[in-house]
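User: Please go through the entry that follows and flag anything odd:
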Amino acid sequence: MAGNGGPVTLRGIAEQLGLHISTVSRVLNGPSGERGRAASGETARRIRELADELGYRPNPHATSLRTRRSNLVGVLFPRLSEIVVATIYEGVEEEATMRGLSTFVTNTHDDPTTQRERIGMVLGRRVDGLIIGDAHLDGAALADPALDGTPFVLVNRRTDTGHLAVTCDDHLGGRLVAEHFLSLGHRQVAVIAGEPFASTGTDRTTGFTDRYREAGLPLSAHWVRHCRFDTAGGHRAAVELLSGSDRPTAIFAVNDLAAIGTIGAARDLGLRLGEDLALAGFNDTPLAAELPVPLTSVHSPMAEQGRRAIRLLLRRIAGEPVASEMLRPDLVVRASTGTPIGPSLR
């Protein structure tokens, strides 16, 4: 036991509580679907409290020998260098570690060929399941027969093919920005829409344009510009939108990086943010509040998506009923959208 300087063991916990070792093992190390049924609520509480007090940590190797599981989860993302992706992965890793799992992550650069190659590489590591954060709307890479029999959960992006996913309610997030712009009196608006193969950009754009259509102000295709999800892409799209005489009075960029690129374009063109141009982003990354003109942005629960994805994957592995989850976003209004320019259009 811990008091003797040795490791804390299941047997030691069982002896101290007067329980059978199998009961303690099921509560602390059993599959997620069994832990709630392993013992009565009071007994399970006593076991967990003593385990926490003594500093018990599961032995992943021993557990894998008993369950024939590797306790390893593979994670695929487009680029771990992106702040949104890194934040989601923090949630994945945090939840996985808490549940005695190890993770390893690989980048696919949103390239379908690379996606298939990396899926094969990950499966070769004999993982228990996958968290996939680079899905394209068509779900083509997920049709790989190699994935048959391996549980996986999408995170951040969904597919049109209905795979199990944990996402932000991106459509609602786009509507929230539209509601805000309408309340400020903006009639001539544009969207920097991101990559058309990603549900994040597509759903956010659709939520925004749907709300403007309902207000009797449909956007023409000219006012929706696709680009990469980065500052350079946002800058190029914004220059195209803002260089004409009929420039928009407000722009919705579907992620904060594209919004920052838009800020640079506005500066280059001599436009004042929050005065000559209203701007909103999406994700509410930490940088948004610290910019010279703080950025209005839709706050999405990024780390929570990662945590929920691991929980959902474990339920799927345990054979429990599962369903996709959408987490609610919130609009954080800051100076970049300025003040009303006319009567509310809502």
Remarks:
- The first helix runs from residue 10 to 17.
- The radius of gyration is 24 Å.
- The mean pLDDT is 89.
